[in-house]
Write a structure and sequence with these properties.
By secondary structure, the chain is an all-alpha fold. It has one domain. 28% of the residues lie in helices and 0% in strands. The chain has one helix and no strands. The protein is elongated.
């Protein structure tokens, strides 16, 4: 959550245990969202 921008983000998955091939990309996705939305 980022109170300065009134922003919060969540990554929703199926919840199934085990390694998901895309799971390593989640931090990169959140970083991209953070970079694209301007601070207020």
């Amino acid at each position: 959550a980022d109170p300065q921008r009134a922003l919060s983000v969540a990554v929703v998955s199926s919840g199934k245990p085990g390694g998901h091939r895309e799971a390593k990309r989640y931090p990169q996705l959140l970083d991209r969202i953070n970079a694209e939305i301007p601070r207020v």
